[in-house]
Amino acid sequence: MKKNEINSIEIARIAGVSRSTVSRVINNYPNVPQATRDKVMQVIEQYKYSPNFSARIMSGMKTRTIGLFLISPEEVFHDSLTNSLITGFIESASNQGYYVLTHIIRNTRDSEVLRKVKETFYQQRIDGGVFIGAANHEPLIEELIAEGYVVGIIDQHIEGRNEPNRVICNFGNDQGMKQGVDYLASLNHRRIGFIAGDPLRCSGPEKLEGFKAAMRSHGLAVNPEWIIPADFSEKSGYNSVKQWLSHVKELPTAIFACNDSVAFGALAALQEAGLCVPGDISLMGFDDHLLSSRIQPALTSIHVDFAEMVDTLASRLIKTIEEPDKEFKKYVGTTELVIRESCRAI
Amino acid sequence: MKKNEINSIEIARIAGVSRSTVSRVINNYPNVPQATRDKVMQVIEQYKYSPNFSARIMSGMKTRTIGLFLISPEEVFHDSLTNSLITGFIESASNQGYYVLTHIIRNTRDSEVLRKVKETFYQQRIDGGVFIGAANHEPLIEELIAEGYVVGIIDQHIEGRNEPNRVICNFGNDQGMKQGVDYLASLNHRRIGFIAGDPLRCSGPEKLEGFKAAMRSHGLAVNPEWIIPADFSEKSGYNSVKQWLSHVKELPTAIFACNDSVAFGALAALQEAGLCVPGDISLMGFDDHLLSSRIQPALTSIHVDFAEMVDTLASRLIKTIEEPDKEFKKYVGTTELVIRESCRAI
DNA sequence: CTGAAAGCGCTTACAG
DNA sequence: CTGAAAGCGCTTACAG
C-alpha cells in the first residue's frame, strides 16, 4: 500500500547520470553544471523523489531534529506553564526548520528510561537535546555533555562547567527576588516569609539565597520559622502552607512564594484558614503565570518572559549544532515586578 | 568525541556468535537457547550496546514514533487549550513507549511545507501521524490516508470515508449545542444569537447546524442577523462581535459562542460597548476552557474532556499501527453543561 | 565534472 | 539451533 518506491538509482537511470550525481544535486554541491543539475531536478520533481531519511543518517548526515525531554513525575496536562514551555520550544524550532522529538520522563531513577533517553542520542535520532525540569546535577545530563552531545538546559548552574556544548537558560533569580523584597519593604513590610522551591533544582536554592540577600540589604531579619519548604507545584504550596499554619506561632505580614503556582496553592490554604489576602497577609508570586492576572485577588508577581527564553534556547541550540564553536553560552532572562492586588501597604 | 563505536559485529565477536544471533537475542526471537541468550545479553549489557536506530529502520522495523502536526497560522504559545492538547498527546504516547515528533504548520498552502510533512511519512521517520487544526477536507490528509498511512485526526467528518487507517476523534457537537440551547430556553430566552466557528473546520458547520436544530426543537426562530461569522480564536470573537454590534438593529437576549476562546473575545467586545453580561445579555461558551471558571463573570459552558480525547486518540492510533485491522474507528466525546454566572433567567 | 565502489549497521530469508 | 550473505538507500572519498 504505501509506496515511495523510487530511489536514487532509479532517478539516476532516468536522468541518465549516476547516483553520485543525483546525490550531489540533492545536497547542492557546487561541482555540478547547471544543465546537469536542471535535468536531474526535473526528474526528481516529476517522480516526487525524496531521499530516504534513515539512509542519509547512516551515511553521517544530520537529522535536523532536537530531542525535548520533560522531567515530571506528575501529569502535566493541566499545567499551563509547562505546556507553553513545550509548545513554545517546538514553535521556535519549527520556525527554524527543525523537528522536535518529545518525550516525558516520569522518573529519572528508572534506569530503563534513562537508557532509552541516552539511546536517542547515541543512535543519532537527534542532533541535540533539551531538558526541562531536571535536578541541577542530573547525572544523565552531565554524562551526555561529557560525551560531547549538544544539550540545552533550562534552570541549571554548576560552578565552573562551561563547556561549549552546554547551552544554559536561566532567569535572574537574584534580581527578581530583590525586586520583590524591595517592593514589599516599600510597603513597610518587615516580617516577610518565603515559600522555598525544590532544593534539588537550581532555582530552588538560588531564589532562597536571593531572598536572604535582599532581606539583608534592607536590614531585615530572616525568621527561619517563616521559611516554608515546598517544591514548585501548586499542590505543594497548598499542603506546605496548610501544615505551616497549623504550628506557626506568629504570622509574618507578607509571604513571598517561589513561583505563582505555589502562590495559588498558598492562597487557597490561607483563605481556607480564614485569612484574607491582602487584608490579613500580603502574598507575592514569581513567574507571572497566565492565571495570575485572573485570580482573586490578582497576584502581584515577578514577570519573566518564557516565550523569549525558549526561543533563545532553540536558536542557540541550533546554532551550536550547526556551527560548533568554543564559546560557552548562557542566557539569563530579565525579571520585572508586576504590581496587582495581592500585596498591601501596612 | 561522541562514541557509540560498538556494533553488532563486535558484540558477536566478543560473545563468540554471529551477528544473526545477536540480532535474534535483541529482538527476542524464540529460537535461541537460554544459554546462548544469556551469554549474548551479558556482553550487550557490559558494553552498553544498543542497535543503531537508522539501520534498524533501513531493514524494515518500526520507528515507534508518531508525528504530531499542528496546523496554526498564528503563534500558539499563549493558547493554553492547544498547548494542553499537544502536551496531553505527547504524555499519552510517552506512557505507551512512543516518541512524538512534533511540527507546527503555519500554512497548508505552502507546498514546500506540505512536501516536508509528506516526506516525514514517506521516509519512515514515523509510524503514523496526527493532525490538529486541519480543515475538514484537507487534501494532504486525504492523500496520506489514500496511500495507506495511519492518520489520526481531531475534528473531522467526511461522509462515507471509513478506512481502517483513518482514526477520528470528535466531540458530540449536536448534543452539546442542544444542551446549551435547552438551558438558555429554560431561562426563557427566545432570542438567541450564535457566533459561528471556522466554516472550513468540521466542527464549524456542525455546531451551526446543531444550533439551528436545537432552536427548531424549541420552536424558536433563528434570526440570520444574529448568526455572527468568526473562526475559533479569541481575536476573531472580539472583532466579529465588535463589528456586529456596530450595525445590528436589535440585540438578542443571549449569545451562544462556538467555543470559549471566542466567548472571551465576545465578552470583551460586549463590555467595551457598555453591555453587561449577564445583566444586559447572556453569554454561553463551548469547551469549558481552563480560564472559563476564572474570568468575570465565570463563563457558563459545555464541558468536553480533551484529556480523555487525546488519550483515546493516542491509544487507538498506536493500536492501529501495531495491529492493523479492518475496522474503522471513531471516537465521539460526550458533552456536559456547566452552569456558571454568564447566563441569567429573563 | 563524473562514475564505480566502499561504507554506514542493522534484519531476515536461506541453507544447513 | 546457527551462520554466511543479501539487502535496505543513501553519501563521499577516490580515481579519472
TrEMBL record, chains A, B:
SMART domains, per the entry: HTH_LACI
Domain annotation HTH lacI-type: ranges: 6-60
UniProt keyword annotations, A-Z: DNA-binding, Transcription, Transcription regulation
InterPro entries: HTH_LacI (IPR000843), LacI/GalR-like_sensor (IPR046335), Lambda_DNA-bd_dom_sf (IPR010982), Peripla_BP_I (IPR028082)
CDD domains named among the record's database cross-references: HTH_LacI, PBP1_LacI_sugar_binding-like
Protein name, per record: LacI family transcriptional regulator
